Every structure is written in structure tokens, then in C-alpha cells.
């Protein structure tokens, strides 16, 4: 059965884009004003319509017929040529927007009031160029009968990204049929029978899409494996076996260093550094997706491990058995085969059906079983088909997929495409096909972010933006749909990657128009290239000349590499240029000659100054300058970039903003506005940037030195900004404290704001609008480093507030009724939606009181997570007094985290807290001394308890009888300095206990005679020197007390680990450390000597 396309062929969206340009008022106006003959334009459109009619049939047949594929490529080339010509007409024959501005007329009006210019030599070339394209199209259309191409119907319809069925898929939970393989690899990794001191290599071999990377990932992240090695690292190798890059990546993982720490070292230096770093350490590395067959390259790489490495292991995944034999000549590789049809059915159901069950779709279940048989046990085929089936939720479409011709079609000699992947692509709407094909310019295994790719699509005009929708929203819909169809796969680092076979499919579709330049294809013709990723440095003159021939190049992504000005001169058609991580301080002035450029990425580069010629890029829409740590100012005439839509300067230390920034009236995204020391009034430019949306950080507010510097209601009209960050930098004393308040008063935002963050505000009190109930859509507020404020604003009045972060109020001593409401007579339930509350670094805070009764809802009725940290004077955990209250405070509380509150004396004194599930208490000496008064048995849902840092010499045994509730499933005790015994009788009462962790209890001599609870399935003993010997397998005196536990872990007390733990602050942070943490905007908790993040406020501007 031949497949009609649901949305049309890949070229369909190219045709539509071209038709739109041909029918645009600009093109028609040029032909009319310049007396050009419109006849050829009409002929061109007729021919294009004829070609479009057979597109779908041609796309379906190109896999099995190389002649059809060649025909399609020639047609695509003519479409691109016609599109280039239309753009050339618009750009060359119309005055620029800057010229319009200079004439003092609006841009749109000027487009419609062109003077009747006389024909020039350039204009006389338009008709011959159109005729040339017409002649070529005629020749192509004459071949369609010979090629057997037929006109087909296209089921066009509005794109709907919400058509996908809901599923039960959870990241990392969709692995089936690999349990035996996983256990075999783990056994090899943990085996100690290797008589050699050298590293042992374990090859995993299997065809593409069989799951080699997935299996290696399961093993790499396994707890037993992780705890058996001192260090581990993962490197994706891919086609180019670069020993220097691989060694550098491993070294960075071992040393936990940043990406630039070893930039200037050669391979020998890196290997020596790696040898030194690995000395005496047991390590485990994974080299994923190895294609190199050259033994000399492998031998060169392995020199770094030519040292004692007893017990160390290296996994290599590859498709080639010869490579497996080369890397491990005397080892039998682990052959990874297909999974069973039954496992395939489970995998498909997990991805397609809600709750992983097809019972609600009996008709579809029968068809899905037959479709699974087509996948021949290949997990990637199943997953890719699942994305397609989920997007076509009806039996008829599934039957069409089951009986599609592609299952029987033979690939041509040049390419091998999985039928399931081709079907997934085949059913994409045309606009998604173009966006997917564009990704073929990325090298294999290239990791990209959602934001990065959406901006690239936007610059290339690949987003069909619907009325009322922003480009970002459209791009996210496209991106999420490709993820849902399993064409993009998320990595642990929150980036995305395409599987090799998916990448091959994209490269097949885009052919020679879109590719990456590396050591493997430098000899390929570049004359037709439109989109290019430069993944290797151009050092050879022949390579440079070859690249210079790509005169139609629209996209050039060259991360890390410098760019010769002569190459820029040759690439005059560029729309997109990425020089991220550009290694030089200066850009060539010729960058200003790229008159079509829409996208320029210089993020994380070493540039110190942008050349003024950048301001000549009048078509520029996207300018990325984030994390350019040497760049301190923008060009003075940046206002000339009147088409600029997106300016990102996050993390770049700008001193101020140009005075003509206000001219960027089309600007939609501005990550940061810096108020300069010399022109504090420049902040008023924001009033004119009415199209800004999303997030904006306004920093340098300390530079406002007079009321006249800031206009009233400066931000009121920025209706589309959803998140605001106000930052006062520096620590200079300002005698006019009232000015701080006035500045904040005039920064009044619109009432539809969602997120507000205030950092470093130095006023003594907040403004009236902060906490006003008219801000009914605010969901998150962060107040940090407001060191002089002594009162909190009435944030309880905000009806939608869900998250609240309060930190660094050095002079605040009391939180009272003003925090809940500005009126004692208010009937509004304070903080009715608040779910998460974090209060930290409040050095003077002693109490919070509530004189008004809670009412039936209680105080903070929706709060589920409460974190309180480093409040060294705080005495009571709950607001108010128990005798004042009639209802439970925090009735929805599930998680309570209290740390470094040494003066805290009272706990959850009243109330049932029936939903409380987890409690963490550490560095709270007075509170722990009163633990018998806690009455934890009140908390009927409590399952997890972590207690730490008890230095009470009277606590020699723990836990006391009746202290802990029987509902506990997890118990952790840390740093009980004087404890010598565990109370076995009390522990036996914990009949539900499954996990017990005992950490750094150095005087604890033995486990209780009563044995540990039979329900226990996990026991961890860490840095308890007396217990380690007693818990030795079979020979230890306490072994019989724990041999029933399925998972046991004894961590050693190495000198390095102890030294690291001594460096961890025990009771409190120093002021210097506090400032460091506050500056980094991250909260840290140390657990077992490991730093964990509980809150990152993301204040980086």
C-alpha cells in the first residue's frame, strides 16, 4: 500500500514559502514600479504548481529509486534558486529600513510608497534569471512520466501539536529485555579475577539501534558499579577518534575541572596529567560509539593507561566486531542481540498507551502486535514507531502503516534507512520535515539545547507562526513534537541528541545541501551547500578554497574556530553565523558586509569589543553575546539594528547600555539591562521597548543617584514581560536610603507578572505595591540580600503565590502579622496557594509571631515543602503561640528541612501534621536535646527521618524507646559524636524500616544484639571505623546480624575522604563563605561529604 502523506512532502513547505514570497506586496511592487514584465513570474508559479503535484509520490519512491532521488535534489536546487532570487529582489531593489528611518518615515509606509526608479543593470538581470529557472523546471517536469511519478492527494490540515496520546513513559523507565545483559556486564565490571595490573577493556558489539548506548548507560549509572570505582567518565567518541579530545574529557571528569582548564595542552601533556590524576585510583570509563579501525590511534590513546590500574575497567561500544577485536584482542565481546517480540510489545505499549496498557484500545492492540513483528527486535525501531502511532490515534492509520510499501522496499546502495524511521519522517507535517532535515548539519552525537535550535529555526524562517502565537511558543511546539516522536532524545545534562540512525535519516533527506564538515568529508563538493557545521579547524589551503566555493551558504556554525575575513567575504549569502567560543579578542570588520545576516552567535567567546561594522547588519534579528567575559560594552550605534528581535547578554559584564538602545523598537527579548555609573537615567529607555517579553534582569540599580534618573511607572507598559529581576550590585554606602525605596517604587510592573526576584535591595522598607493583591498572577517571589530591611512585605495577600524564597535579611529580627496581610481585618486566607517556602541566612531573626488567629484554613494551608537554614537566632519553628490557635498550622506539610538553627528550642508543638512524610534536622543542638518532647508518633504519614550532628555527650545510645514512629521506612543518623550503641529494642519496633544509614558515628562499637529489623533491605555504614571490621562478610563479628539484608554498603574512611569532610562547615558558615554562596545564588547542603543543591535561584544576569 502506498502512503499518502498526512501533511505533504518535505519540499511542500519550501514551495509554500516560495509562493508566499512571490505573492508578497514587496515583490509585486518592485515589478510594477520598475516596469518589469510579470509574465515570467506567472509562468514560474504554474510550473511550480505542476512540480508540487508529484512531490509526495517522488518522496515516497526516492528510497528505492536513485533516479527519483536525483530528480528531487535537482528540483530542490531550483526551488532554492528561485527563493534566493525573490530575496535578492526584495533586498536589492527596495530601500533599506535604515534609509526609511533616515527619511523620517515609518518602515511599512515606505515599502508602499516607492518611487518609480529606472532600470539598472542589476534589475535587467531579473528576467533572465527567472527564465533560466523556468527552463530547468520544464526539463525536470518532462521527466516525471519516465520516472513513473504520479499526482497524489495531500491530506492537509492545521498543525496540532496536542494530537499525541498521553502515555506513562518516564525517563529511564523504558528499557526492556536487557536485564540479563546488564547483569553480565556488571559481573565483568565487578570481577576481581584479573591477574593483570592493566586496565581491562570490555567491548559491547551490536547493530545500530539495538541498544548498546542504553545498556552502557544502565551499567554506568548502576549503584553497585558507582560505589565500586573511585572515578568514572563517559565519552561519546563517534566517527572522529580524537585522542586529544577524549583524553581531555576524561581528565575533566576525573579532576572535576572546567572545559577550558587544559585548552593549551598537547596530547602528551594531557596523558601525563591523567596518569598523575589516576594514580592509586580504581576507575571506570565508557567510550561510546567507536568507529576507528586504526590501531595506531587506539594505541596512542591507551598510553595514558600504561600504568598500574588493577580492577579498572573500560567499556567500548561499537557496531564493528573488528574494532572489538582491536581494542580487546583476547576478550570475547558481549554480543548484543535483538529483544523478543514480547519485550517489544511491552516497550511499544509503554510509549503509546496510557498507563502502558492497550486494554482501552482493543482494536489497536491487535494491529500493534503485527506492527511490532515488523521491528525485528530493534528497540530504536519500536520507539520511533511508537512516536508515530501515538500521533495517529486511529485504527485505519495504523493499518496503513502496517501495510506500507516501505517495509518491502530495498534501500539503494548509498544509504540504509530503517523502515520504521522512514515512516516516522514520512508522516511528519511539511514544516516539521524542514525543521528535522535542518538538524542534519549537526555532527553525529552533537548535543544541542532546545533554545539553541529554536533560535536557529527562527532565523531560517522555518517556523510557521500562527496568529496570536509567539515564535518561541511555535518553536517549542515543533521541538516537543519531534521529541515525542523519538527523533530527538534527551540526555542527562538536559540537552538533546539524535541517534546515529536518526541523524543518518536527516542527512539523507537534506543530501548535499546541509552537512557537517569534518575529517571524513572534507573532499565532498561544497558548491551546493546551504547549511554547514564546521566541526574541525580549516588549516589546509585546499580545504579553505573548497569552502569558499559554497557561495550559496546560508548557515555557518563554527564553534571554537576562528574565521578568516576572506571567507566571510566569500559567504555573502549567510543568514546564520555562529562563532560561539570564538578564541580571539577581535572580530574582522568585514563581518559588517554580511547584509543578509539574521543570526549572529558569539556566546562564550573571547572577544573584547564588537566592531562598529556590526551595526551595519540591518537584517540582524538575533544577537547572542552571553558569557563573553571580556566584553564590557556594546557598540554605540546598536540602535541601527532596527530589525533586532533577540539580544542575549546573560553573564556578560557590561558596564552600561548604549544610549540609542531605545531605537530597537522591534526588540522582543532582552536578557539584561545594565544601569551605568555615568548615565543612570538610561534606564528610561525601557519605556520604549514595548514588545519585550519573557524574562529581563535590570542590574546596576545602585547607579541611580537621583529621583530624576528614573521615570514614574517605567515598566508599567511592558505587558508581555512575565519575569523581572531587580539587582543592586556593589556594597557602597548610599546615604539617601529613601532613594532606594523610590527607585523600587517606580519600577512598578504590570499586574500580570508571574515571577519577581529582588536581589541586594538596600532600602529599610519595601514599597506598597510589593504584596498588593492586584498582582494576582504572581507565582514565585525571591527576596535576597536585602540586608537593611527590618520588615517583610505583606506577601500573604498574593492569591497565586506558590514559591517564596527569603534570604540574607541581616537586620530583620521578627516576622509578624505584616507578612501575612496589610490589614488585620482582611478575610482573605494568607498564602492560600503557597507550596514551597525557603528561609535562609537570617542572622538576626529570632521569632515569627501571628496575633491574628489562623481561621479554619490554618496558616499556610497549601504549604508542602518548608526549608529553613542558617537562622542562628531563631527560637521557634511555628508562628504564634499554641493557645492563640484553633486550627493546625501547615496542614498540608509533607517535607520539613531544618539545618543550622542552633538556638531553636521548639519543634512542631501543636497540630497533627497528618501529611508530613519527611523530616531533616541537622546542626540544631538545643532542639535535639529536647527530642523526647517531639512526639513524632503524631505524624502518622512520616516515612523518612534524617538526624545529624549531635555533639551531646549524654547521647550514648540511640534511638530511645518510643521516640520514633513505626511508620518510618528510611532512617539516617549522621555525626553522632558520642554514640556507642544502637538501641536494638527500639529499632525492632520500626517494623516498616527498609533503609538505614549510619554516617560518621566514629565511636559506635557494634550493632545491637537484637539484630536489625527484618524488614530492612538496605544498610549503609559510612566512616564508622569500629563497625567496618565487625561487618566483614562471613568473618565479621556482626556479620550474622546483617546477612539477611539484600543490599549492604560499607564505605571506607580514606584519608582523602576524611580531609574533604573536615573541610565541610559543621556548625555555621563564615561571613566570607556566606557571601560567596550568596553571590553564586546557590544553596548547598553537605551530605556524606558531597555537596547537594537544594535551591538555585538562577539570578545570573
Automatic annotation (TrEMBL):
Q: Where is the Disease resistance protein winged helix domain?
A: 441-506
Q: Which superkingdom does the taxonomy of this entry point to?
A: Eukaryota
Cleavable signal peptide: none
Q: Which residues cross the membrane?
A: none
Assigned keywords, A-Z: ATP-binding, Leucine-rich repeat, Nucleotide-binding, Plant defense, Repeat
Annotated NB-ARC domain ranges read 178-355
Q: Give a yes or no for keyword Hydrolase in this entry.
A: no
Q: Which GO terms describe its molecular function?
A: ADP binding; ATP binding
Outline the extent of the Disease resistance N-terminal domain: 10-90
List the GO biological process terms.
Answer: defense response; response to other organism
Per its record, how is this protein called by name?
Disease resistance RPP13-like protein 1
Source organism of this protein record:
Ficus carica (Common fig)
Amino acid at each position: 500500500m502506498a502512503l499518502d502523506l498526512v501533511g505533504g512532502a518535505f519540499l511542500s513547505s519550501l514551495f509554500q514559502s516560495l509562493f508566499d514570497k512571490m505573492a508578497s506586496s514587496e515583490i509585486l511592487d518592485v515589478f510594477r514600479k520598475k516596469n518589469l514584465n510579470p509574465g515570467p513570474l506567472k509562468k514560474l508559479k504554474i510550473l511550480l504548481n505542476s512540480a508540487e503535484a508529484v512531490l509526495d509520490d517522488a518522496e515516497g519512491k526516492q528510497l528505492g529509486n536513485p533516479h527519483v532521488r536525483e530528480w528531487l535534489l535537482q528540483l530542490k536546487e531550483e526551488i532554492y534558486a528561485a527563493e534566493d532570487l525573490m530575496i535578492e529582489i526584495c533586498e536589492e531593489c527596495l530601500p533599506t529600513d535604515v534609509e526609511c528611518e533616515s527619511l523620517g518615515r515609518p518602515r511599512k509606509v515606505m515599502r508602499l510608497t516607492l518611487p518609480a526608479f529606472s532600470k539598472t543593470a542589476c534589475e535587467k538581470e531579473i528576467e533572465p534569471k527567472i527564465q533560466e529557472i523556468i527552463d530547468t523546471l520544464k526539463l525536470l517536469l518532462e521527466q516525471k512520466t519516465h520516472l513513473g511519478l504520479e499526482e497524489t492527494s495531500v491530506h492537509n490540515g492545521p498543525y496540532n501539536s496536542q494530537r499525541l496520546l498521553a502515555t506513562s513513559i518516564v525517563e529511564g523507565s523504558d528499557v526492556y529485555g536487557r536485564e540479563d545483559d546488564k547483569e553480565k556486564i556488571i559481573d565483568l565490571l565487578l570481577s576481581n579475577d584479573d591477574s593483570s595490573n592493566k586496565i581491562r577493556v570490555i567491548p559491547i558489539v551490536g547493530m545500530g539501534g539495538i541498544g548498546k548506548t542504553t545498556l552502557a548507560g544502565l551499567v554506568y549509572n548502576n549503584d553497585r558499579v558507582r560505589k565500586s570505582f573511585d572515578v568514572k567518565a563517559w565519552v561519546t567518541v563517534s566517527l572522529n577518534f580524537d585522542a586529544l579530545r577524549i583524553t581531555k574529557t576524561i581528565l575533566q571528569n576525573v579532576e572535576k575541572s572546567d572545559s577550558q582548564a587544559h585548552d593549551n595542552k598537547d596530547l602528551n601533556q594531557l596523558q601525563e596529567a591523567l596518569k598523575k590524576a589516576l594514580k592509586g585510583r580504581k576507575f571506570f570509563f565508557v567510550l561510546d560509539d567507536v568507529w576507528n579501525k586504526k590501531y595506531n590511534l587506539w594505541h596512542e590513546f591507551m598510553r595514558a593507561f600504561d600504568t598500574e590500574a588493577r580492577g579498572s575497567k573500560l567499556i567500548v561500544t561499537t557496531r564493528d566486531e573488528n574494532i572489538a577485536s582491536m581494542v580487546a584482542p583476547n576478550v570475547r565481546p558481549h554480543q548484543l542481540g535483538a529483544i523478543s517480540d514480547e519485550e517489544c510489545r511491552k516497550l511499544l505499549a509503554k510509549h503509546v498507551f496510557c498507563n502502558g496498557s492497550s486494554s482501552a484500545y482493543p482494536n489497536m492492540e491487535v494491529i500493534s502486535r503485527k506492527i511490532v513483528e515488523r521491528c525485528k527486535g530493534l528497540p530504536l525501531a519500536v520507539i520511533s514507531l511508537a512516536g508515530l502511532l501515538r500521533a495517529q490515534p486511529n485504527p485505519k492509520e495504523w493499518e496503513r502503516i502496517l501495510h506500507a510499501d516501505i517495509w518491502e522496499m530495498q534501500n539503494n546502495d548509498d544509504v540504509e534507512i530503517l523502515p520504521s524511521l522512514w515512516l516516522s519522517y514520512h508522516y511528519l507535517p511539511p514544516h516539521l520535515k524542514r525543521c528535522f532535515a535542518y538538524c542534519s548539519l549537526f555532527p553525529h552525537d552533537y548535543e544541542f539545547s532546545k533554545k539553541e535550535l529554536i533560535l536557529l529555526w527562527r532565523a531560517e524562517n522555518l517556523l510557521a507562526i500562527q496568529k496570536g502565537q509567539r515564535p518561541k511558543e511555535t518553536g517549542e511546539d515543533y521541538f516537543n513534537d519531534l521529541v515525542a516522536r523519538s527523533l530527538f532524545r534527551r540526555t542527562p545534562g538536559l540537552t538533546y541528541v539524535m541517534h546515529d540512525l536518526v541523524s543518518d535519516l536527516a542527512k539523507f533527506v537534506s543530501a548535499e545541501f546541509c552537512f557537517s564538515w569534518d575529517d571524513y568529508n572534507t573532499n565532498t563538493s561544497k558548491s551546493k551547500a546551504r547549511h554547514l557545521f564546521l566541526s574541525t579547524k580549516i588549516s589546509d589551503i585546499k580545504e579553505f578554497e573548497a569552502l569558499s566555493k559554497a557561495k550559496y551558504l546560508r548557515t555557518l556554525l563554527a564553534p571554537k574556530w576562528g574565521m578568516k575575513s576572506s571567507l566571510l567575504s566569500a559567504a555573502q549569502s549567510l543568514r546564520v553565523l555562529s562563532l560561539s567560543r570564538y578564541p580571539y579578542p577581535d572580530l574582522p570588520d568585514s563581518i559588517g558586509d554580511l547584509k543578509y545576516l539574521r543570526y549572529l552567535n558569539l556566546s562564550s567567546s573571547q572577544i573584547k569589543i564588537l566592531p562598529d561594522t556590526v551595526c551595519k547588519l540591518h537584517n540582524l534579528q538575533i544577537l547572542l553575546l552571553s558569557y563573553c567575559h571580556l566584553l564590557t560594552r556594546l557598540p554605540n550605534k546598536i540602535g541601527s539594528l532596527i530589525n533586532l528581535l533577540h539580544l542575549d547578554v546573560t553573564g556578560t559584564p557590561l558596564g552600561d547600555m548604549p544610549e540609542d538602545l531605545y531605537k530597537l523598537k522591534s526588540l522582543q527579548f532582552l536578557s539584561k539591562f545594565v544601569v551605568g555609573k555615568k548615565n543612570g537615567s538610561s534606564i528610561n529607555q525601557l519605556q520604549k521597548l514595548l514588545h519585550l517579553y519573557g524574562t529581563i534582569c535590570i542590574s546596576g540599580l545602585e547607579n541611580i543617584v537621583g529621583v530624576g534618573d528614573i521615570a514614574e511607572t517605567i515598566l508599567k507598559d511592558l505587558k508581555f514581560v512575565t519575569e523581572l529581576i531587580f539587582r543592586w550590585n556593589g556594597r557602597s554606602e548610599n546615604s539617601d536610603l529613601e532613594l532606594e525605596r523610590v527607585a523600587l517604587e517606580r519600577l512598578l510592573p504590570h499586574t500580570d507578572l508571574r515571577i519577581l526576584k529582588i536581589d541586594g535591595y538596600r532600602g529599610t522598607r519595601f514599597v506598597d505595591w510589593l504584596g498588593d493583591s492586584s498582582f494576582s498572577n504572581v507565582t514565585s517571589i525571591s527576596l535576597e540580600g536585602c540586608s537593611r530591611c527590618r520588615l517583610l512585605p505583606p506577601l500573604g495577600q498574593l492569591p497565586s503565590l506558590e514559591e517564596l524564597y527569603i534570604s540574607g535579611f541581616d537586620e530583620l529580627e521578627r516576622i509578624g502579622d505584616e507578612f501575612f496581610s496589610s490589614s488585620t481585618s482582611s478575610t482573605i486566607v494568607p498564602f492560600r496557594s503557597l507550596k514551597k517556602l525557603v528561609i535562609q541566612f537570617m542572622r538576626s531573626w529570632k521569632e515569627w509571631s501571628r496575633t491574628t488567629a489562623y481561621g479554619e484554613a490554618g496558616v499556610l494551608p497549601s504549604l508542602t515543602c518548608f526549608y529553613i537554614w542558617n537562622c542562628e537566632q531563631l527560637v521557634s519553628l511555628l508562628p504564634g503561640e499554641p493557645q492563640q490557635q484553633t486550627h493546625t498550622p501547615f496542614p498540608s506539610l509533607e517535607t520539613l528541612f531544618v539545618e543550622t538553627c542552633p538556638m531553636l528550642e521548639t519543634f512542631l508543638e501543636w497540630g497533627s501534621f497528618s501529611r508530613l512524610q519527611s523530616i531533616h534536622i541537622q546542626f540544631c543542638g538545643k532542639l535535639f536535646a529536647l527530642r523526647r518532647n517531639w512526639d513524632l508518633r503524631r505524624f502518622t504519614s512520616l516515612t523518612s527521618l534524617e538526624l545529624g550532628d549531635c555533639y551531646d555527650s549524654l547521647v550514648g545510645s540511640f534511638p530511645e524507646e518510643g521516640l520514633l514512629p513505626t511508620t518510618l521506612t528510611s532512617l539516617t543518623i549522621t555525626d553522632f559524636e558520642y554514640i556507642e550503641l544502637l538501641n536494638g529494642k527500639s529499632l525492632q519496633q520500626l517494623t516498616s524500616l527498609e533503609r538505614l544509614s549510619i554516617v560518621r558515628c566514629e565511636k559506635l562499637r557494634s550493632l545491637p544484639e537484637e539484630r536489625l529489623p527484618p524488614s530492612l533491605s538496605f544498610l549503609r555504614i559510612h566512616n564508622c571505623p569500629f563497625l567496618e571490621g565487625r561487618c566483614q562478610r562471613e568473618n565479621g563479628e556482626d556479620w550474622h546480624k546483617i546477612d539477611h539484608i539484600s543490599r549492604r554498603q560499607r564505605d571506607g574512611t580514606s584519608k582523602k575522604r576524611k580531609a574533604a569532610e573536615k573541610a565541610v562547615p559543621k556548625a555555621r558558615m563564615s561571613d566570607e563563605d556566606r557571601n560567596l554562596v550568596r553571590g553564586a545564588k546557590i544553596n548547598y547542603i553537605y551530605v556524606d561529604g558531597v555537596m547537594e543543591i537544594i535551591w538555585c535561584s538562577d539570578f545570573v544576569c
